[in-house]
């Protein structure tokens, strides 16, 4: 980023507490430019890349995962069918269906299960994705209703599932539970919760948008994890670096029915090969590396906690500690605007991007950000993290 652009960003923000004076579009461009220009970053992902770069990346890697001389897909055949076959094989399920979004995949899955069980009630955590991010789509679009076994910031226990005071046809478990800090239960806790749902004649569906990176925590292969559920949804962009898209995996009968509902929901897309090629390259390139990312996230999280303590900060939180996946939360006692401005200035001035976007919480003056460690973060040492934390906190303007 040019010095003129950096100066412009600072003058428009009016200081660390005035970043919201920039228009949303100007702030978006400023963020992407800062992340794009960063030489040190924990995870680059699909954010902060130009269209040209994303196209070049796809062109460079796709030949290793797919025969580019094959014909393009039409309404779900060809390369789409190959991706579905790969997913079913990886998860050990009878079949899988590609969906343009995970929101659609999960609505369809739960709607299909409701028809089979005769019960439209879904037991789900109040912080799960459908409850927080989907505009009440389960109720408004699919005619389902939700009940909550627990509101604690963790997955429900077997006891809570058994004691839920009304019938339910489906138990949906988000693995990991993102809004609670990408948290996971132990393997024993998970199997007991699944067993408790089965005791109540409920089917079990895994929201596995980030299931790919859960295997190291459980110490079990993906197939053994997916085998616990009656159906599983997985995402191709959250952990695998794809462009978009998801898959619903499960028994043939369910997947076949889901294709019919996918069509009704508007998901029968004419051609999907760009998203599918990116998904295939993600399976080949990123999936094998996820255990490495998970392991290094522990190093980064510990270094972050130690470095924040060393600044003399009276309160902070790294959660969970240690992380359960390659993603975790950091909490600080400052407004989100100040923290976002500090992070942007650090990236613009030093080409080191430690944190991305902070958001406020129910507690006034307390904010949270999510940290992701991928290939770009593997060479960060504890001392690198400590140096970046000092630079970040200097720009927050801490005054103890």
TrEMBL record:
Required cofactor names: pyridoxal 5'-phosphate
Pfam families, per the entry: Beta_elim_lyase (PF01212)
Entry annotated with the keyword Nucleus: no
Keyword Aminoacyl-tRNA synthetase: no
Keywords, in A-Z order: Pyridoxal phosphate
Aromatic amino acid beta-eliminating lyase/threonine aldolase domain span: 78-305
Ranges where the record places region Disordered: 1-26
Cited InterPro entries: ArAA_b-elim_lyase/Thr_aldolase (IPR001597), PyrdxlP-dep_Trfase (IPR015424), PyrdxlP-dep_Trfase_major (IPR015421), PyrdxlP-dep_Trfase_small (IPR015422)
Coiled coil, from the record: none
UniProt xrefs under PANTHER family: L-THREONINE ALDOLASE, L-THREONINE ALDOLASE-RELATED
Family listed: Belongs to the threonine aldolase family.
Protein known as: Threonine aldolase family protein
């Amino acid at each position: 980023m040019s010095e003129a652009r950096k100066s412009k960003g600072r003058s428009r923000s009016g200081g660390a507490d005035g970043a919201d004076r920039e228009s949303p579009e100007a702030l978006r461009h400023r963020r992407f430019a800062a992340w794009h220009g960063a030489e040190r970053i924990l995870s680059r992902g699909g954010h902060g890349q130009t269209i040209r770069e994303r196209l070049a990346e796809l062109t460079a890697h796709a030949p290793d995962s797919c025969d580019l001389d094959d014909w393009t897909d039409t309404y779900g055949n060809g390369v789409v069918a190959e991706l579905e076959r790969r997913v079913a094989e990886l998860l050990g399920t009878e079949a899988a269906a590609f969906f343009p979004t995970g929101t659609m995949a999960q609505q369809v899955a739960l709607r299909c299960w409701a028809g089979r069980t005769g019960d439209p009630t879904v037991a789900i955590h109040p912080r799960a994705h459908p409850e927080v991010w989907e505009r009440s789509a389960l109720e408004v679009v699919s005619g389902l209703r939700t009940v909550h076994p627990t509101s604690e910031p963790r997955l429900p226990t077997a006891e809570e599932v058994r004691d839920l005071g009304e019938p339910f046809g489906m138990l949906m478990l988000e693995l990991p539970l993102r809004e609670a800090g990408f948290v996971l239960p132990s393997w024993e806790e998970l199997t007991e919760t699944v067993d408790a749902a089965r005791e109540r004649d409920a089917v079990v569906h895994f929201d596995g948008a980030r299931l790919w990176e859960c295997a190291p925590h459980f110490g079990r292969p993906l197939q053994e994890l997916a085998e616990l559920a009656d159906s599983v949804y997985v995402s191709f962009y959250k952990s695998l670096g794809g462009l978009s898209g998801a898959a619903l995996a499960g028994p043939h009968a369910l997947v076949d029915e889901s294709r019919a509902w996918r069509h009704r929901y508007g998901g029968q897309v004419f051609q999907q090969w760009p998203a599918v090629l990116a998904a295939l390259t993600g399976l080949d390139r990123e999936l094998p590396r996820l255990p490495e990312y998970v392991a290094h996230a522990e190093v980064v999280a510990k270094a972050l906690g130690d470095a924040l303590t060393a600044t003399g900060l009276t309160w902070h939180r790294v959660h969970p500690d240690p992380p359960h996946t390659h993603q975790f939360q950091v909490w600080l006692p400052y407004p989100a605007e100040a923290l976002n401005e500090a992070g942007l200035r650090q990236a613009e001035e030093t080409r080191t991007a430690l944190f991305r976007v902070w958001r406020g919480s129910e507690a006034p003056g307390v904010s949270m950000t999510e940290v992701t460690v991928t290939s770009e973060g593997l060479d960060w040492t504890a001392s690198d993290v400590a140096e970046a934390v000092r630079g970040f906190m200097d720009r927050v303007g801490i005054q103890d």
